[in-house]
Amino acid sequence: MKAVAYKKPLAISEAQVFSEVEVDTPIATGHDLLIEIKAISINPVDIKMRQRTSPDNETWKILGHDAVGVVKAIGDKVQNFKVDDEVFYAGTNQRQGSYAEYQLVDERIVGLKPQSISNAEAAALPLTSLTAYEMLFDRLKIQDTKQDKPIQDKPIILVIGAAGGVGSITVQLLKVLTEFTVIATASRSETKAWLQEIGADYIVDHSQPLEQQILDLNIGAPHYVFSINGTGRYTQAIANLIAPRGHFGLIDDPENFIINPFKIKSISVHWESMFTRSTFQTKDMTRQGDILNKISKLIDDQRIKTTLGQNLGTINVEHVIQAHTMIESGHSIGKIVLEGF
Predict the structure, then answer these.
(1) 296: closest CA among 130, 150, 155, 180?
(2) Which of 60, 62, 64, 61 is closest to 88 using CA atoms?
């Protein structure tokens, strides 16, 4: 099968950073599904994994997490899928990825693709949806039951870096599944407009000091804070702003993260990694498949929308390099998708 692969952690500007290679098509065993890949999206974690590869590596590595495809074969322990099912998933960082014609993925972390949207639109969803859903409902323990409450009784959440892939899904899930008042941060006019479109109640500029902007809203202290990126820059402001006995979640990797400022308010701190369940083969691995099926239904019920930003075309070396370059620039909007070989 064809795949876009690499060996060394080269800069994206260097020649031969990726190559098109021929590798053996894998064989499904156990809980595996063999998926014929139809569309993928490129994620920041792909860039991090490429950059962190050992310079001594000599084997072909295939990146890629988000994918949409068709089941072509199943292992002997598969229970929930059959050949020809259309599926979507975010995979694992423990196996070869989705920049390939075929991929093996454990059925327990797979969902049925939404039927009302295209392969490209669906490919934009799995990793960000799982991260957002797990943070809100598994880590922060927010109740996914919408209630009608007066605005003064609604809990408040601050979502920092809300216009990206994870943030966009987070805001939508909060608005359709909870009664929360959502304060979202963004810095560019186009990202602020996007957050307004998907329902954020208040939008503040994270390129400016956050604390005074949120105090000026005069709506009270946020009970929850979800920081998606730039956490190191905002840690003290978050500690100052968050309500006593509040809950703080993060997904990025701030250097020298100091938790001490949160003690005085008895704040609980939660880290989320979408890969934990698959990496450690936790007993509740099937939770990810369940979440993806919930996301699929929310899409088909037209309660949330895809975060597809740009479809660059076929899955090839040129387009993979283009996508990595765009993400590394820090100025891409929405998810970047590649489709077909």
Answers:
(1) 130
(2) 64
Helices (H) and strands (E) in the chain, counts: 10, 15
Give the residue from 245, 272, 299 where a domain finishes. Answer: 272
User: Distance from first CA to last CA of the chain, Å, rounded?
Assistant: 11
For the entire predicted model, the pTM comes to 0.95
Q: Which one-letter amino acid corresponds to residue 221?
A: A
Write the pLDDT tens digit of every residue in 221-250.
999 999 999 999 999 999 999 999 999 999
State both tokens at 246: 């509040």
User: How far is it, in rounded angstroms, from Cα 263 to Cα 259?
Assistant: 8
How far, CA to CA in Å, does 212 sit from each of 15, 162, 228?
47, 19, 20
Whose structure tokens read 């309500």? 243
Does residue 66 contact residue 87 with C-beta atoms inside 8 Å? Answer: no
The structure tokens listed for 148 are 């009608």
Strands 156-160 and 181-185: parallel
Q: What is the CA radius of gyration of the chain?
A: 20
Q: pLDDT per residue over 161-205, tens digit each? A: 999 899 999 999 999 999 999 999 999 899 999 999 999 999 999
Dump pLDDT digits (tens) for 75-121: 999 999 999 999 999 999 999 999 999 999 999 999 999 999 999 99
* CB of 216 closer than 8 Å to CB of 148: no
Residue 63: give its domain's CATH number.
Answer: 3.90.180.10
Average pLDDT, the chain: 95
Domain ranges, residue 185? 144-272
